[in-house]
Design goal:
This protein is mainly alpha-helical. It has two domains: about 90 residues, RNA polymerase sigma factor, region 2, helix turn helix motif (Rna Polymerase Sigma Factor, Chain: A, Orthogonal Bundle); about 80 residues, Winged helix-like DNA-binding domain superfamily/Winged helix DNA-binding domain (Arc Repressor Mutant, subunit A), CATH 1.10.10. Helix 1 crosses helix 2, helix 2 packs across helix 4 and helix 3 crosses helix 4. The protein is elongated, with a radius of gyration of 19 Å. The termini are far apart. The relative contact order is 0.10.
Length: about 190
C-alpha cells in the first residue's frame, strides 16, 4: 500500500512507513501491540493527565484507551494522520465517559502562556490587561467548546488532527472554532466594557 505523507505529522517517508508497519504487524499479531503501547503511552498519558489532573485516574483511563485500541485495532484505517490521532480520539471519548460516570465537571487548569496563545490569534494588542477577563470568559464556555479551544490553542493541534480526534469533518471543526472565537470576542468586550 502506498501511503501519503502529511508533512505536519510525519517528517519522512521512512517515519510513516515505520508507523504503518507497526500497526499492520500488531493487526496480525497482538503481541506486536506492545511496540505501539511503548511508543504512544507517554503521549496518551499526558493528554489524559492534562484533563484529569489525577495520576491514578489518568493511569486507569490510559489503560482503558490501550485496551480499547487493541480490541478495535482491526478496524483502524490509515487516513494520513499519525496513529496517535486515533488513540487520542479514544482517549477523548474515555475522558468524557469518565466524567459522565462520576457526574463531576472537569477542572481546567489554565496558565498565562495558554491565554497569550489564544489572544495572539485574535489581537495584536497588549494582552496582559485582558487575561483576567479572558479567563472569566473562557469559564463561561460550554465544555465541548472549551475542548476545541484547548486543543487548538493550548495544545497547538492542527484542525485536521482535532477533526480526527473528535471524529468530525475538518471544515466543521474550523467553522466551530471561529464561531467560538467570535463568541469569545463579544463576551470579552462585554466584560471589559462593564
Amino acid at each position: 500500500m502506498t501511503v501519503n505523507i502529511n508533512p505536519r505529522y510525519h517528517k519522512t517517508r521512512t517515519q510513516i512507513n515505520i508507523e504503518y508497519k507497526l500497526v499492520e504487524a500488531a493487526k496480525k499479531d497482538t503481541g506486536e501491540f506492545k511496540l505501539i503501547y511503548n511508543k504512544y503511552y507517554e503521549i496518551i498519558f499526558r493528554f489524559i493527565y492534562q484533563r484529569t489532573g489525577d495520576e491514578i485516574i489518568t493511569t486507569d483511563i490510559t489503560s482503558d484507551v490501550f485496551y480499547k485500541a487493541l480490541q478495535n485495532l482491526s478496524s483502524y484505517e490509515f487516513r494520513g494522520l499519525p496513529f496517535s490521532s486515533w488513540l487520542l480520539r479514544i482517549a477523548h471519548n474515555e475522558i468524557i465517559k469518565h466524567y459522565k460516570k462520576i457526574k463531576k465537571s472537569r477542572v481546567v487548569k489554565l496558565e498565562a502562556k495558554h491565554l497569550s496563545h489564544l489572544t495572539s490569534e485574535e489581537s495584536d494588542k497588549n494582552t496582559t490587561d485582558f487575561r483576567p477577563f479572558l479567563l472569566a470568559t473562557l469559564k463561561e464556555l460550554k465544555i465541548e467548546d472549551f475542548h476545541l479551544i484547548e486543543m487548538r490553542f493550548f495544545e497547538n493541534r492542527p484542525f485536521k488532527q482535532i477533526a480526527e480526534i473528535l471524529n468530525k469533518q475538518e471544515s466543521a471543526v474550523k467553522m466551530k472554532v471561529y464561531r467560538i472565537l467570535a463568541k469569545l470576542k463579544v463576551l470579552l468586550q462585554k466584560k471589559i466594557n462593564g
